[in-house]
Amino acid sequence: MKFKLNNQSDFARRGELKFPRGKIQTPAFMPVGTNGTVKAMTVDDLKSTNSEIILGNTFHLMLRPGDEAIRDLGGLHKFSNWNRPILTDSGGFQVWSLGELTKISEEGVKFSSPYDGKKIFMTPEDSIKIQQNLGSDIVMAFDECTDYPATYQEAQKSMELSMRWAKRCKESHKSDSALFGIVQGGMYKDLREESLNKIIEIDFEGIALGGLSVGESKEEKTEILQFMSDKLPKEKPRYLMGVGTPEDIVEAVRYGIDMFDCVLPTRNARNGQLFTSEGVINIRNAEYKNSDEPIDKNCHSKVSQNYSRAYLNHLQRTNEMLGSMLATYHNIYYYQSLMKDIRDSIKDNLFEKFLKDFYNKRNLEMPDGPI
Fold it and tell me: Which of 271, 296, 353, 368 has its CA 20 to 30 A from that of 321?
């Protein structure tokens, strides 16, 4: 992996990640492909939304169909017919989400499969091996996602464990894939800085911020991003894990974040929530039953260009499969268009104007911050 920083507007950055399988323009949004597919999307549709990288889920693919089975079938790229870059998460977040079903020790994590109850033990070395079997382009270090809320002592203990695991991940990583380390520390700034310094010392190719979007307020999240913004190494890509809404992404870009992933555009689409340039609409609402308006008059996706709000309302209310497919396509297209607009504004030194227009269209007050 090679990373090049092309433009900067205060903390906001525009750059390029280069892999043998292709280039990624940053800031970038990665659609989530939990089971080797972005739900309700074909590979051709994904490409037509200008998605350049997707996220694969180590935890779920390890359990079904199995990472060794995928390896033997040529790796996740061939298995899913996606020939562009793939980032795989480490499985740490999914293990954390199982809550009391997990038992964490220095060596690793013991948990029960949510599918058949089988007892599984995963170490940092196991996570790296699984991701290498999948053949991902970006491998994530195995970490413990810190609970929210957490006391200082709890956050410190969790962060220090993650840092010891990070070192083990680095030592066991043998492939040509890029390896990203994950900064933890909860809502405590000194712990975040200590974690970052350890991640820098271990020398990962990229740096992720974990343990956010786990229940904290937007104000708390912004405070951590603001604190970290001038401490993150400029020469390495920065990834904010599990974020988020368009507003969350725009705010994180203001503080220098380059990469994002989130299930919102796909999950919300299946529930009738559509993202537009003027905010979110619930297409199942009765007010759209007879509306011949496009989903978003400012969007050039094939859904907004060819289908009315009334048609998507009908599909969603009758639980037609096509309803989820069209809604998902629209949301992913919207997110990728948003990222392009962000990149173009930074390139043209118009990011401040972009911010004002973004919030004005939504009738929202722009939060204080850089620019």
Answer: 296
